[in-house]
Amino acid sequence: MKKPIVFLAVLVVCLAALSGFDSTFSFGKDTPPVEATASTEAMGSDVLAFQNLVSTVEIAHTKFSSLAAAMPEATYAWQPMDGVRIVSAVYIHIAADNFFVPSLMGLDAPDETGITDDVMTFRAYQEREMTKAEVVAAVDHSFEFLLGAMEETANNLERPLMLGGGETTVGDIWIRAVTHLHEHLGQSIAYARTNEVVPPWSN
């Protein structure tokens, strides 16, 4: 089986799984999938599917940013139990990952983050102390950088990369990154609900 077909198949399964969640994760009412046109068909099915993946990140951007802003600053130090991330640490972790993942593809993160393709810089960023306003700004900035990086690599999804001692591709790393985002979006929603904060997009 050719690699492009493998990427497309995995991406379709990923998108189907994500779109199968309840209204909290309903993509249909937020941003419709990219529709096939003469120009998108010319790009190929892999790129069209990738543009739909980009759309899910745009939705995640809106939800993370609005939820981080909706959480009162007094809740930013809250955690459900010892040994797990506090509210602010979850958002800082997401920002760090959004900056770090593109660096693995050779795309430099903004200098002020201090993040490179060295995992220690990724960890160091997560140790920063930030106010709520700084956290919200960091989340927003990180998603803008991540989305720009995704668009920049859209035509090189099959480029091989080494990750964790094994070979993978740019496209595979993006799928993993989007899955990771939704894991922590679910966590953030649970944190919010527990603190009686209704996600802004929810009823």
The percentage of residues in β strands lies in under 5%
Briefly note the CATH topology name: Four Helix Bundle (Hemerythrin (Met), subunit A)
Alpha carbon gap, first and last residue: 44 Å
Structure annotation, total helices: 7
Radius of gyration: 17 Å
Please count the beta strands (DSSP E, at least 2 residues each): 2
Per CATH, the superfamily is dinb family like domain
CATH architecture type: Up-down Bundle
What order do the helices and strands follow? HHHHHHEEH
Q: What structural category arises from helix and sheet content?
A: mainly alpha
Largest sheet: 2 strands, antiparallel
Biggest sheet strand line-up: 1-2
Total number of domains = 1
What is the helix fraction of residues, given as a range? 55-70%
